[in-house]
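Researcher: Structure for this, please.
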Amino acid sequence: MFKRSQLLLVMVTVHALCTVNSRAKASDLSEYYHQEGPLVGTLKSDAPLPLYDANPEHLWNRLYAAFYIRPRTVPPKGDEPLAVRYEGGDVIEFLAWGSTDYWSSEEVFDRVLPLLDEFLNADGEEMFEDPLKRVVLQHDLWAVYDHLIDQNIQRRGDRETRQRRDLLCSKLARCIQSLAISREALARLPDTYTCAIESGEFAAEHNFDASVNYLPHHLLTDRDEWVEIDFYYPNMHEDIMDRFVSLHARSFFGRSHYRIFYRFPEGREQVTSYLEDLAREGLDWKFSAQFGFAKLKESVPEIPVGTEVLLMQMMVSLDDQMRPVPTRLVESVQFRVFRNLDGGVEPETNTGVGINILDYRLKRHLLFDNLRSGGLEREPEEQPQYRVAIDGSKWGAPDWGYDDKKVLFQQCADCHMSRSLTRLGVVSIPSIIHSGGFDAGAQMGISQPLDPEEIEFRGLRVARFKSRHETYRRLLDHLGL
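Model: Predicted structure, token format:
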């Protein structure tokens, strides 16, 4: 079991870290992207971006671009000719789906191996002392390592292909280790959500207007307004703790942990009472026991109109002892508010079915520009995007995922809404029941509110899950640890 005296991270004052220069102008990357036409939103080339350094040709930028910019040849369609799209850039997801062979190819191997050697031979980790940049690049390379080693764990490809992957993994592991900072330094990293709020870039109220760039200002401080929930029980036996790791965290192989918050119109007491009613009346226990996952009854008690749900993705790092450690660096924030529960077009929403959806993602060019906006930028609603993590490697997704790019609402609808869109509400909130980790025997039941002294357990549980994962054991093997 976790011992709080040993594992709780030291909390430090963050206001000084959210510097007064947070509103300074960040690097403008628009010149690197197509602004109109069929390639809108994609990169003009695979040239490195000025992310880690203002010079695009800096080694860190070149190394990052080699793994986070990927070409895709698109066959002719209608009147559109064959085209090459350059995808990726300043993104939080590594473009590697389940059946992707691209990163295991000889072409990629010949391009990235010299860059890894250059980094190792030139003591590339010493080019920046900034712990924030070191942690983020380590995290970027860790995603690549996990994908490649997972392909080898599954014994995908012939022997020569697996040997190529293994060589890349051995060098990636050394790069990852060289970038590590101490556990104490990780605890001193900024709370970037607080930095986002203090930047002044996000409104304190949304007033049900989806055009407003809104983030709740009291999310982390007002426990009566915003209720953090989890499928957690204090006396949980350590043998079953991995069953309580969410599907989202599993999709990232434990490199991210997630915090989930609810706000009901009448505050915490309404949330608590509703979850108690749901646990007492809402689950079809017979079906759940027979088929292995929790199912809500048709007569399930419904959430109130005006319910707000927020999912915050947080970065997990590796300290200088190569132990997984949850940090306070925010990778994404997904917010939705229910204006009706029947999928109707009234009142007006940005989805047209009764829900306003906002999505923010970490952008390095903002994060490294004096923590501007806390590093967060809102994702456009109308611009199609790829979803990688949930389509992930374990479900056999093809080279570019199950579908082409989808706009934000389509991505949300896939997992959170019934196909008919006639019944939303509680059935569209998977976190209200424990819906992740069925392969590990996920426990049945309803989530419950966390007390303030319990809020660290979710991140620590994911760090523990990662430390027991086969990808992590292989990383230690590559380092001889």
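Researcher: Any notable elements?
Model: The radius of gyration is 22 Å. Residues 190-469 form one domain.
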